[in-house]
Amino acid sequence: MEKLVLCKELEPGIALVTINRPQALNALDPDVLTALYQAMDELDQAVDIKVVIITGAGEKAFVAGADIASMRTMTPEEAMTFTQIGHRTMDRVASMSKVTIAAVNGFALGGGCELALACDIRIASAKARMAIPESGLGVIPGFGGTQRLPRLVGLGMSLELLTTGRQCRADECLSIGLVNRVVEPEALMDACLELARAVGKNSGSAIALGKQAIYQGVELPLAEGLQLERQLFSSAFSTADQKEGMTAFLEKRNAKFQ
Fold first, then answer.
1. pLDDT digits over 74-94, tens only?
2. How far are the Cα atoms of 159, 164, 243 from residue 100, in angstroms, in the given order?
3. CB–CB of 235/227 below 8 Å?
4. Which of 11, 42, 78, 114 is an active site residue?
5. pLDDT band at 1 (very low <50, low <70, confident <90, very high)
C-alpha cells in the first residue's frame, strides 16, 4: 500500500510533502491528516530543512476537500473528533518554524483550501480553483477556514465565499489576496523552488522569529505587538546567525548561516 503522504528532500534545505491519494483527489480523512501531522512534525525538527513545499499528487487536485463519504453518517460527537484531528494538523502546519509554501496545482476545496490557508505562502497554477463550499453540504468549514480566511482576505470577501460556496479561479484568488502568485501549470514547482531557494539563503532563526512576531502580533493590540517585536528583535542578538550575518555584511561576503 502506498503511503498517504510522501516526503522527500528536493535539494539541500528544501523538502517536498505530497498528499498522495490521487484516486480520491487527495481528499483528507483521519488517516491522511494524521500522516500529514507526523510528516510536518518531523520536518519541523529537522535542523537542515528551511522550507517545506506542500502539494497534491496528480494534476487535478491539491486537495479536493475532506472525505465526504466518511463524513455523511457522522454523529455530532464523531464530527467533534474529526474536527479536532483536522485542527491539530492544520495548527501543526501553521506553527512550523520553517517556511511553508502551498503549491496549489488544482482543486483546493474545503479542507484543501484550509490546508493552503495554514501555509505561509500560496503559489497557484493557472488551473487552480479554490473554494469553501461547505454551506452547500449543510456544514461550515471545520479545519480553521472560518478563522484563517478573514485574516487573509478580509471579512466581506470571506462571508461572500462562505455563503455562496463558489469556486474562485486562480486570477481571482490572486486579486483578493488568497494566493501570492499565479503561474502556468508546468512552471508551478519551478516557481516554488525559486522562492524556496530565496528563503533558504537567509537566516532560519531570524525567519522563525519573524514568523512568530507576525502571527502572534496580528492577534494583539498594536502596542502589545510592538512590545513583542522589541522582545524578539533583541533575542535575535543571542543567535549565531546574527553574528554571522552582520560579520559577513561588513566583510562583504555571503553569510553562511547554520
1. 999 999 999 999 999 999 999
2. 26, 29, 26
3. no
4. 114
5. low
Question: CATH number of the domain at 204-250, please?
Answer: 1.10.12.10
Distance CA 70, CA 218 (A): 36
- Grid cell listed for 5: 503522504
Please give the average per-residue pLDDT across 216-245, as a whole number: 97
Mean pLDDT of 43-47: 95
Choose, from 11, 134, 184, 229, the residue flagged as catalytic: 134
* Residue 181, strand partner residues: 123
244 is catalytic: no
Q: What is the pLDDT of residue 108?
A: 98
29 in helix, strand or coil? coil
- The CATH fold of domain 5-200: 2-enoyl-CoA Hydratase; Chain A, domain 1 (3.90.226)
- Nearest to residue 206, comparing CAs of 253, 164, 241? 241
Domain residue limits, the chain: 5-200, 204-250
Q: Is 114 a catalytic residue?
A: yes
Q: Which helix (H) or strand (E) holds 39?
A: helix 30-45
- The pLDDT, as a whole number, for residue 69 is 84
Which whole-number Å values give the CA distances from 174 to 97, 132, 170, 185, in the listed order? 25, 16, 6, 15
Name 169's bridge partners: 129
| Averaged pLDDT, 121-146 | 97
CA distance 142 to 137: 12
φ and ψ at residue 254, rounded to 5 degrees: -75, 135
Which residue reads 561576503 in cell numbers?
253
How far is 169 from 146, CA to CA, in rounded Å?
20
What is the per-residue pLDDT for 67? 82
